[in-house]
């Protein structure tokens, strides 16, 4: 009988030793798998067969989760983390009525409200998504510049990760002439910067193609091919045919050409090379010169007729 008692006592001591790593005091920290808990509940895995330290299982297909509550009277400070009956991971309010964040069982992320990634504060302003840093996904990256160099853009990349085009803002936001102009940049085959292909000046509204400083509503640094170009202008040169128009004397025109090396009213070569030409105005001036030339030709024809008539009369009178 004593032998049986000793055997039972040894078994009890062995059983107590096996569970000695759990600690459940009347107050203070409790530990599972550890005798030195560091929090109110400290769970430490003692098995290499499982990676899970805690399992919360719902009843007959109902949601399983836990509730996090700040011990204050402020509303909206209580959240619930739970797994729905469909296998979705959800962060919701205290009554499980509204999902703040959810990861569907399909792997999709859903958020109710503004999302901030990085060292952004609540006072950054309402944004559906705020990212403080470079974002890279699916062949593009987003860069948010500094105050001194206000470059904010998306870069579109090839499948190999090389830059192809960038779309965004470019300008110095710290100066009085803050730029922040809309721009499109292009890159070579190796992803190196080539040129600013397109820009819109924020203040003037001027558009530039191949130039970063458009001085007109549309400035193009290169050739243009079009099937039709329409230029509107005020007035036209048909007033030359009015009876009140005084046709310049050819002698005065000859003297002007000798001195200036171009026709009256027409721009000089140096001016065109420097400032270009106004197509509408130059077409109007060219038409004026053509109409004046037509009048000179008509005058010469009339003079030739008069001379021919006089010659015929002289020959008849002989």
Automatic annotation (TrEMBL):
Residues 1-20 form the signal peptide. Keywords: Signal. It comes from the Bacteria. This is BZIP transcription factor.
């Amino acid at each position: 009988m004593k032998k049986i008692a000793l055997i039972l006592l040894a078994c009890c001591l062995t059983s107590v030793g096996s569970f000695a790593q759990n600690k459940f005091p009347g107050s203070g920290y409790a530990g599972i798998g550890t005798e030195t808990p560091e929090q109110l509940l400290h769970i430490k895995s003692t098995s290499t067969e499982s990676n899970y330290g805690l399992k919360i299982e719902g009843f007959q297909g109902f949601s399983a989760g836990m509730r996090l509550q700040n011990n204050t009277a402020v509303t909206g400070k209580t959240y619930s983390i739970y797994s729905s009956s469909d296998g979705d991971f959800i962060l919701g309010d205290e009554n499980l009525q509204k999902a703040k964040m959810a990861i569907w069982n399909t792997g999709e992320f859903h958020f109710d409200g503004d999302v901030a990634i990085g060292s952004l504060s609540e006072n950054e302003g309402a944004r559906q998504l705020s990212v403080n840093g470079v974002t890279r996904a699916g062949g593009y990256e987003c860069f948010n510049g500094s105050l001194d160099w206000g470059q904010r853009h998306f870069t579109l990349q090839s499948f190999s990760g090389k830059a192809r085009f960038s779309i965004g803002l470019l300008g110095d936001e710290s100066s009085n002439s803050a730029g922040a102009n809309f721009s499109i940049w292009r890159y070579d085959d190796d992803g190196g910067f080539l040129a600013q292909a397109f820009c819109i000046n924020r203040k003037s509204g001027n558009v530039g193609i191949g130039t970063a400083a458009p001085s007109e509503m549309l400035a193009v640094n290169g050739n243009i091919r079009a099937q039709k170009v329409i230029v509107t202008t005020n007035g036209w040169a048909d007033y030359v045919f009015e009876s009140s128009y005084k046709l310049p004397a050819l002698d005065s025109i000859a003297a002007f050409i000798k001195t200036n090396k171009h026709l009256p009213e027409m721009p000089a070569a140096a001016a065109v090379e420097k400032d270009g030409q106004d197509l509408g105005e130059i077409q109007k001036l060219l038409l004026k010169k053509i109409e004046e030339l037509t009048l000179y030709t008509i005058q010469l024809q009339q003079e030739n007729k008069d001379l021919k008539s006089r010659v015929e009369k002289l020959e008849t009178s002989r």
